[in-house]
Amino acid sequence: MEHRIEKIKKQLHSQSYKLTPQREATVRVLLENEEDHLSAEDVYLLVKEKAPEIGLATVYRTLELLSELKVVDKINFGDGVSRYDLRKEGAEHFHHHLVCIECGSVEEIEEDLLLDVEKIVESQWGFEVKDHRLTFHGICRVCQKQAVAASSAEENKK
Amino acid sequence: MEHRIEKIKKQLHSQSYKLTPQREATVRVLLENEEDHLSAEDVYLLVKEKAPEIGLATVYRTLELLSELKVVDKINFGDGVSRYDLRKEGAEHFHHHLVCIECGSVEEIEEDLLLDVEKIVESQWGFEVKDHRLTFHGICRVCQKQAVAASSAEENKK
DNA sequence: CTCCCTGCAAAGACTTTGCATGACG
DNA sequence: CGTCATGCAAAGTCTTTGCAGGGAG
Q1: Which of A1, A74, B24, B25 has a CA that sits 20 to 30 A from residue A57's CA?
Q2: Can the keyword Cell wall biogenesis/degradation be found in this entry's annotation (chains A, B) (predicted)?
């Protein structure tokens, strides 16, 4: 984990930004919650546990900065909030998401499934693809099982 | 166009909603600007030209309603506003978008390029796909040409 | 008469900004 | 010292809600 912080520090320095304690705390929170898709408010609350004096505005400013540096991706699942997602080590493509419409869980797909599609877009639409956002909405494994369980319970009642 | 309004009217009635004059005016604006990706405010201003007494809240409520009925899709390109996009006749998949990071133009892809990808997601992740959102960010044909023109102008200067 | 719909204004949620203060070289 | 970063509070967006009045059946 430390080396990832070092790396981010270098990225900041290369653009003459500093890794201040607040920024570092924010980055640590993001690293520790890599699986989640935290909103600015979520990050703020978590950072506050370690550095209670931090302000919400600083968190916003830091997330904005990290977003510019492509350290995090800002995403939006359609509820009114922006969420921030750390790019994985070495990944230059933006990972995909599976959002369950039943329970709201969000799963990530690291693998890039769009290589073929991008080729088609480039050749047929003449569009030079730089990045993509792909989200599937549907029913996750867990909720599918529950649906089956519920309907068989229904069966038993008869 | 009239038959599309009729169709929407029936959809509304089937859920015991009415197609009021305000709602109809809103739908007409959406139909007349199918190519664009209007924000609620945009729709409001356009509707106002025909029906000046309409309120912004009604537009929001109508768009929300149409969204529930799957007549329009609510999308979000990362600027802070929701945009509303009419579903095409008979389409049950949500079309894809090409957003140009130079000029901000948005192009649509009707064709469903994700059929194969969805199969993979279903079989390998056990996720039952119901809908998807796919947006590519990159450089559109027009801006690519301008970039070429600009760099050759640069050449000429030498 | 009842229920749904509307306009207006107010409230709300999320995010950005202005400004004085503070850290750092 | 000068610059960049911070915290706080205020201001901004965009969107939703409360409520009284209206309209259709």
Answers
A1: A1
A2: no
